Amino acid sequence: MKMLVLGAGLQGSACAYDLLHSEGVTRVTLADLKIDRLPPFLERVRSEKLVLKQLDGSDHAAVRQVMRGHDAVMSALPYYFNGPMAALAVECGCHFSDLGGNTEIVFEQKKLDAAATAKGLSIIPDCGLAPGMVAILAAEGIRRLDKTERVRIYVGGLPQNPEPPLNYQIVYSLEGALDYYTTPSWVLRGGKPVQVDALSELETVEFPSPVGPLEAFHTAGGISTLPFKYEGQVDVMEYKTLRYPGHVAVMRPIRELGLLENSPITVKGQQVVPRDVFIAAVHPKLHKPEGKDLVALLVTASGIKDGKKSTVTFRLIDYYDARHGISAMMRATAYSLSITGQMQVDGRVTLKGVHTPDEAVPFAGYVAGLAARGVVIEEL
Asked: What are the structural domains, with CATH classification, of the chain?
């Protein structure tokens, strides 16, 4: 298998790392505009299978040239590249998967279905943790029930050693996290897609020690297209982010005071964007390169099975890999992308065309692939 990873940030590098350690992968091309500085866990891999390419994602002619000759493309570029990269992959005859991040772009990618099907290609957006893993687990829970009434999904990337006032450290783009805190979230209520305010409907979710109780609240994007797919089939479906208790009590006033706005304001005669100032001020305090993280996940599907009330529950608690220096968020997100790309090439993904992970990725093989990497999803 000849695999191309677009984006050499932490997630793209972790995806390349996993591919290099996967049987059957003969070449891994890692491409990015800035390819000279790789994270230590990838720098330590000395493999003839790894090819580094400098590439500007906005240069479509150059992208075509790099894509050709690869079996699959896995994109860890910013979400706004996902649409054009998927189209170019179809043009070049490559399977394609990405980390998602924008539901509207997924609907645009679905327009490539006929072209991808005609070429026998698989295109799977939203292949990270959330969206991604959570959709595969939720779909499995729904399949196991005769009638599904409620699907509740909770995910959090958290520091193992929280520090006030936010008890949080950056585990991916802070800009992306703030988008989730300010964008309304799509949910199902009464079987109909509706939007609810981010940071709303706070509740407590219990995890075993040492994680303990976490607070959960609505954020956007985590379940992507699921509310539209299951309209009329599931009464309630919602996604909430997990944080340590007290996080919302700080973040909600910050948002309501306008500090996360993207519209410029005038300060002492200068035009500034409040969110840019906020990020510049807090990033040094929340960015802890040596900080060890964890991922906590809980997915429940409740309804009727054989005439009785029944609930299917999946739980994941994963920790920073201290031996290799790979974060829990990378293990849950980038490894998911790597596994999906390999399944597309080796034929375990049988659906051709454009399909989301809940539709295309086989549950048993996916969960087994994660477990082989030490990312163990429990069934409770």
From this structure: 2-127+329-379 (3.40.50.720), 133-319 (3.30.360.10)
